[in-house]
Design brief:
382 residues; 57% helix; 10 strands
Length: 382
């Protein structure tokens, strides 16, 4: 129990009032006390031995400036708030044993200590005198009263607990019997329900299996029919495609044969034209060559005749020679040549034989070259 003044400047957990009283609330360490200016409080008379406040008659210098004291009924309970009279200062020890200094402004001041049974008060000596404020008797009385009340409460609690326990046991025993009967009935009903459910489930499962089997058979039959139909359609489609492919291939083959035949005809025509042109060219070349060979042969024969003529006119061959009329021709050196009839005939025969032989040789060569050319043309076109 505590209070706090409205004029507290630094929010300390204590203050002074008209009775020069300090209220200590939940403190661990009380700061140093400094009286307010103009509010000094004095007391008259020494404190009583027990430290009761009713024996004091405080005199206040400035009553109008101080707050009103708290109501005495607020602190009438000595067990909850113990009044102790202090002389000047006093050292108070908290429950942990730590000393706490609670100063007072003058001898005879009063301090209200809440829950005094949790505190012990030390002695304070000043001017050779000792002021002892003790609350041991009050504390012991309070403790005894509390212990007695606690024992009575514990005994009552134990009695109530025993009665409740006995009633609970009786109730539990009755409830156990009822519960056992109910559980037995429930178990029997549960077993019957389980048996019924098992039979129903078995019947449903058999019906479901039969239905699934029938559906499976129907599905397999439908699948087989669909596969057969699909197979027939595939076979028809395959046959149709094969026929189309065969007809297309025949048309392609026929067209290719026609094109090949046409190409062969064109090639044969070109080959014939080429052979004709080649034969004409070779014939022209042969004619040119024959003409050149003829001229060359005539020149050779002429040279041979001239040589024979020279040989006949030589002294070794002049005897017995019969001179006949000859043709006069110009020689290389401008001299006349005389040929006999025999020489002329021999020359003509030799020329005819040479020309015939040359023609045969050229014809054979031309034929061979034609064959070779045709062979090369066939190789190239094939």
């Amino acid at each position: 129990m505590s209070t706090q003044c409205s004029n507290l400047r630094d929010k300390r957990p204590y203050c002074s009032n008209s009775h020069n009283t300090v209220w200590v609330s939940d403190f661990v360490k009380v700061p140093e006390f400094k009286p307010l200016p103009g509010k000094h409080i004095t007391t008259e008379g020494p404190p009583t031995k027990k430290g009761r406040t009713e024996d004091f008659h405080p005199r206040v210098d400035t009553v109008d400036t101080l707050p009103q004291p708290p109501s005495p009924s607020k602190y009438s309970d000595a067990a909850s708030s113990v009044t102790k009279t202090l002389a000047a200062s006093m050292i108070i020890y908290d429950p942990s044993g730590k000393p706490v200094l609670v100063p007072a402004d003058s001898p005879g001041s009063t301090v209200y200590l809440p829950d005094a049974d949790d505190w012990t008060i030390a002695r304070h000596a000043k001017n050779g005198k000792e002021y002892i404020a003790s609350v041991d008797a009050l504390v012991n009385e309070k403790k005894e009263e509390e212990a007695r009340k606690q024992k009575i409460a514990e005994a009552e609690k134990l009695r109530q607990e025993a009665a409740a326990k006995e009633a609970e046991e009786r109730k539990q025993h009755t409830e156990e019997e009822i519960r056992a009967t109910i559980e037995k009935e429930l178990l029997q009903a549960h077993q019957e329900e389980v048996s019924r459910l098992v039979q129903e489930h078995k019947a449903k499962r058999e019906a479901e299996e039969k239905r699934l089997q029938m559906e499976q058979e129907a599905r397999e039959q439908a699948t087989a029919e669909a596969l057969q139909k699909q197979r027939e359609e595939i076979e028809k489609e395959t046959q149709r495609k094969l026929e189309e492919q065969r007809a297309q291939q025949e048309q392609t083959t026929k067209r290719e044969l026609e094109e090949r035949q046409k190409l062969e005809e064109e090639e044969n025509k070109k080959r014939a034209e080429f052979e004709q042109a080649t034969l004409a060219r070779l014939q022209r070349e042969n004619e040119i060559k024959l003409e050149a060979d003829k001229k060359k042969l005539e020149q050779e024969i002429r040279q041979q005749l001239e040589q024979d003529l020279k040989n006949k006119q030589s002294p070794s061959r002049a005897k017995g020679a019969k001179v006949v009329e000859i043709d006069a021709e110009e020689s290389k050196d401008g001299q006349s040549k005389v040929l006999t009839d025999a020489d002329r005939k021999r020359i003509e025969d030799s020329k005819a034989a040479a020309v015939q032989k040359k023609a045969e040789r050229d014809a054979a060569s031309l034929k061979e070259r034609s064959y070779r050319l045709c062979f090369l043309c066939n190789v190239v076109h094939d």
